[in-house]
Amino acid sequence: MPSAPFVRIAELSAHVGQPVVMRGWITHVRSSGKIAFAVVRDGTGVCQTVFVKGQLTPEVWTRFSELTTETSVAITGEVRAEPRSPGGHEIGVTELAIIGTSPVDYPIQPKEHGIDFLLDNRHFWLRSPRQRAIAVIRNEVEQAIHDFFYERGFLRVDTPILTAAIGERSGLFATEYFEEGQAYLAQTGQLYGEAAAAAFGKIYTFGPTFRAEKSKTRRHLTEFWMIEPEVAWNDSNANMELQEDFISFLVQRVLERRRAELVELERDISKLETVKVPFIRLDYTDAVKLAQSKGSDVTWGDDLGAEDEALIVEGADRPVFVMNYPKEAKAFYMKENPDDPRTVLCNDCLAPEGYGEIVGGSQREDDYDKLLHRIKEEGLPLDAYSWYLDLRRYGTFTHAGFGLGLERTVAWICGLQHIREVIAFPRMMHRLRP
RNA sequence: UGGGGUGUAGGUCAACUGGCAGACCGCCUGACUGUUAAUCAGGAAGUUGCAGGUUCGAGUCCUGCCGCCCCAGCCA
User: Within 13 Å and on the Cβ side, how many CA atoms surround A313?
Assistant: First the structure.
């Protein structure tokens, strides 16, 4: 007699009526005397297994009573379509092998837990259906990112994580680097992206970035993943068109392919279906007026605070671009606005529903003298930026790009309160383990 | 870093004005042949974050420290 094939739970529907071997972890057991049920999870789904005392050897029946939450098992039995079972199938068990026992003090229950407890047990928390749904949607978004840029002829360029002091001003993580002194973990790949854009035309980077900011909010991680396209010959308007095409593409992809996971997360899908181009565009000056009219005491020249951003997106059914901030509020590499030199050609993209800034983008300063002046004005180390200035000396070019925060974007799409759930092992100010 | 909050069983929380430290979930034992977070009966489980102080008496009040949560700033 041929042995039963090993089948993943997601593939059970192709094996109805046949004996199979299922391997996975016990999430739950229920017993009703001479009939008993064990629910098994294998990462592709969950499946109920049925143990009937009168149809099993005494050894298998006894072994059932040894099952605890998260025991790993191999179960043999016939697949049946069964509407009463979660997932629509169940296994009529004939054989049970315990692979790895699990002590009864497994910490995670199908109940409410506090966030600190869950993060202490993150290595277990990942096993929950909710965390699986988030991981699946994150993966879908990552795949969609690569598909979007690949289809449009962008080259992916991997930029260094260990850098000399370069990028933005605040919060660098430092480490010893041989005879070179201090190296810093990258806060952005953008400056390298600009060099690559001059070489290859349309590029993007996708990698981890590190910020040693002492931020403890629902929107911040010390280690997060960022997508940074950089496009030769794009101006600020083309940059925003790319952003809205990109973001709506990601949302559309999740709606098409990961609806079940959105439902698992109880996401209000109607709030995503309205995310279509064109996005709303607001000049910074108008955004300030709008915030003021709703009670904010922000004044022209200030950066917009979280409260201002919330007022600006209030009622919007899609993301909002805020364009052309005052120079003082923004980074040194942004191009001066020829129509109003107090401002720079840049934009933030604010997600709806209070999720805040998911993208920061700008046209880059391509004038050597103006860029040099800004670097000096900021007191940045000139020698570290000499190669960056070279990009303006040897064939300078109009170019623009942006950075999209992966975790913020996925948190918004999933409708989550906090981005710490969006990454498998979050790094925050007070959390380095597990 | 600043403001606010919080810390009690493995988990989530209750305990009035300072007066015997409790519930549910989970766990253990037993019953039950279709359960869906099964149900029913019983049981074990605590240095009330730590260190001091006030008091006849402190989970509760006071001081200090620590952890965590929320908000703000910084940003993506």
Answer: 24
Using CA atoms, how far apart are residues A50 and A203, in angstroms rounded to an integer? 54
Encode pLDDT of A23-71 as tens digits: 999 999 998 889 999 999 999 999 999 999 999 999 999 999 999 999 9
Residue A214 · residue A232 · CB < 8 Å: no
Which nt sits closest to A431, CA to C1'? B68
pLDDT score for A87: 80
Report which of residues 261-300 in chain A place their beta carbon less than 7 angstroms from any atom of strand B: none
pTM summary value? 0.92
How long is chain A? 434
Q: Which of A362, A361, A350, A323 is nearest to A409 (CA)?
A: A350
Domains of chain A: 9-100 (2.40.50.140), 122-421 (3.30.930.10)
Span A204-234, pLDDT tens digits: 999 999 988 888 888 889 999 999 999 999 9
State pLDDT tens for residues A237-258: 999 999 999 999 999 999 999 9
Residues 402-421/A with CB within 7 Å of nucleic chain B are 403-405, 407-408, 417-419
Separation of CA A120 and C1' B60 in angstroms? 30
Which chain A residues 48-77 have CB under 7 A to strand B? Answer: 48, 50, 52-54, 68-69
Residue A19 near residue A4, CB atoms below 8 Å:
yes
Distance CA A93, CA A96 (A): 7
pLDDT in tens, A12-23: 999 999 999 999
| Chain B bases having any atom below 7 Å from a protein CB | 1-2, 10-13, 25-28, 31-39, 67-76
For A50, phi and psi rounded to 5 degrees? -115, 125
Q: Report the alpha-carbon distance of residue A421 to residue A415 in Å, rounded.
A: 11
